[in-house]
Amino acid sequence: MHFIQTDNLDIKAIQTILDKANFYQKNTPPKTLQDKIIITAFFENSTRTLSSFEIAAKNLGAKVIRLDISKSSTLKGETMADTAANLNAMNPHAIIIRHKNAGAGEHLARYVDCPIINGGDGAHAHPTQALLDLLTISNHFKGDIKGKRVGIVGDIKNSRVANSNIELLSRFGLDITLIAPPHFLPKTHFKTTQDLKGSIKNLDIIISLRTQTERHNYQIYGSLQDYAKQFCITKNILQDHNVIVLHPGPVHHNIDLDDEVLKDPRCKVLEQVSNGVLIRMAVIEHCIFN
């Protein structure tokens, strides 16, 4: 099965993936993907997601082939459809893609016989990030997450992470507030506010987002420092509130999160990275065997 966005999976399938990820946290993974070939095709820069997927696949015994985009024929004018058809002719068992254009995964899925797993497409979706965020939240609260209050802070309008988290977390009954300047807010029925400091006392979880400067057609604020004055998560903002802080990375230091917050035990950034490998192991397995 393809995994392009979070709503490709029902609640039961998601819970199975979370349970499998937690199983892999405590147990040596079996080589269920022995002799399977996984291709990673990242047409957009990535550190965490690409490495996480490749480690996940290798942990399960798969052979991983990374498509070197800098040397690929896409630079010679080869279309995405041609690329997909040629990759498919190599008989991989799954292709993991990242692309700057929304809908790239769905487009490729028309031309291949194996699962396409979306590692992020434009400002559209980043489904495995939302799953690892859900795992991090669920484990922290020992599964008791319904009704927990989450604030998503930052460039929500341009964030695929926000889109996937809004869809997934709301399905699991979390109460969502979007915290951003007006030009970073999409049209939405969810609660919105610009008052980060006033909101914090009513939140259990904060998901801070990177400002998506590469997706802005023009500069829409005076500077990143001006943005940070209102929306950077600092120790002064957090105070002693019982709240956990998540961020998908890469962190803009002292713009998204203050350096001191990154050292705070309430900050779950590195736990998210660890959970990313576990979730992606479970997702690759699920897509190949279902």
From TrEMBL:
<dbReference type="GO" id="GO:0004070">
    <property type="term" value="F:aspartate carbamoyltransferase activity"/>
</dbReference>
<feature type="binding site">
    <location>
        <position position="210"/>
    </location>
    <ligand>
        <name>L-aspartate</name>
    </ligand>
</feature>
<dbReference type="Pfam" id="PF02729">
    <property type="entry name" value="OTCace_N"/>
</dbReference>
<dbReference type="GO" id="GO:0044205">
    <property type="term" value="P:'de novo' UMP biosynthetic process"/>
</dbReference>
<feature type="domain" description="Aspartate/ornithine carbamoyltransferase carbamoyl-P binding">
    <location>
        <begin position="2"/>
        <end position="138"/>
    </location>
</feature>
<feature type="binding site">
    <location>
        <position position="49"/>
    </location>
    <ligand>
        <name>carbamoyl phosphate</name>
    </ligand>
</feature>
<comment type="function">
    <text>Catalyzes the condensation of carbamoyl phosphate and aspartate to form carbamoyl aspartate and inorganic phosphate, the committed step in the de novo pyrimidine nucleotide biosynthesis pathway.</text>
</comment>
<dbReference type="InterPro" id="IPR036901">
    <property type="entry name" value="Asp/Orn_carbamoylTrfase_sf"/>
</dbReference>
<feature type="binding site">
    <location>
        <position position="48"/>
    </location>
    <ligand>
        <name>carbamoyl phosphate</name>
    </ligand>
</feature>
<protein>
    <recommendedName>
        <fullName>Aspartate carbamoyltransferase</fullName>
        <ecNumber>2.1.3.2</ecNumber>
    </recommendedName>
</protein>
<feature type="binding site">
    <location>
        <position position="250"/>
    </location>
    <ligand>
        <name>carbamoyl phosphate</name>
    </ligand>
</feature>
<dbReference type="InterPro" id="IPR006131">
    <property type="entry name" value="Asp_carbamoyltransf_Asp/Orn-bd"/>
</dbReference>
<feature type="binding site">
    <location>
        <position position="129"/>
    </location>
    <ligand>
        <name>carbamoyl phosphate</name>
    </ligand>
</feature>
<dbReference type="InterPro" id="IPR006132">
    <property type="entry name" value="Asp/Orn_carbamoyltranf_P-bd"/>
</dbReference>
<dbReference type="GO" id="GO:0006520">
    <property type="term" value="P:amino acid metabolic process"/>
</dbReference>
<keyword id="KW-0808">Transferase</keyword>
<dbReference type="InterPro" id="IPR002082">
    <property type="entry name" value="Asp_carbamoyltransf"/>
</dbReference>
<keyword id="KW-0665">Pyrimidine biosynthesis</keyword>
<feature type="binding site">
    <location>
        <position position="126"/>
    </location>
    <ligand>
        <name>carbamoyl phosphate</name>
    </ligand>
</feature>
<dbReference type="GO" id="GO:0006207">
    <property type="term" value="P:'de novo' pyrimidine nucleobase biosynthetic process"/>
</dbReference>
<feature type="binding site">
    <location>
        <position position="98"/>
    </location>
    <ligand>
        <name>carbamoyl phosphate</name>
    </ligand>
</feature>
<dbReference type="GO" id="GO:0016597">
    <property type="term" value="F:amino acid binding"/>
</dbReference>
<comment type="pathway">
    <text>Pyrimidine metabolism; UMP biosynthesis via de novo pathway; (S)-dihydroorotate from bicarbonate: step 2/3.</text>
</comment>
<feature type="domain" description="Aspartate/ornithine carbamoyltransferase Asp/Orn-binding">
    <location>
        <begin position="146"/>
        <end position="286"/>
    </location>
</feature>
<dbReference type="Pfam" id="PF00185">
    <property type="entry name" value="OTCace"/>
</dbReference>
<comment type="similarity">
    <text>Belongs to the aspartate/ornithine carbamoyltransferase superfamily. ATCase family.</text>
</comment>
<comment type="subunit">
    <text>Heterododecamer (2C3:3R2) of six catalytic PyrB chains organized as two trimers (C3), and six regulatory PyrI chains organized as three dimers (R2).</text>
</comment>
<feature type="binding site">
    <location>
        <position position="76"/>
    </location>
    <ligand>
        <name>L-aspartate</name>
    </ligand>
</feature>
<dbReference type="GO" id="GO:0005829">
    <property type="term" value="C:cytosol"/>
</dbReference>
<feature type="binding site">
    <location>
        <position position="160"/>
    </location>
    <ligand>
        <name>L-aspartate</name>
    </ligand>
</feature>
<dbReference type="InterPro" id="IPR006130">
    <property type="entry name" value="Asp/Orn_carbamoylTrfase"/>
</dbReference>
<feature type="binding site">
    <location>
        <position position="249"/>
    </location>
    <ligand>
        <name>carbamoyl phosphate</name>
    </ligand>
</feature>
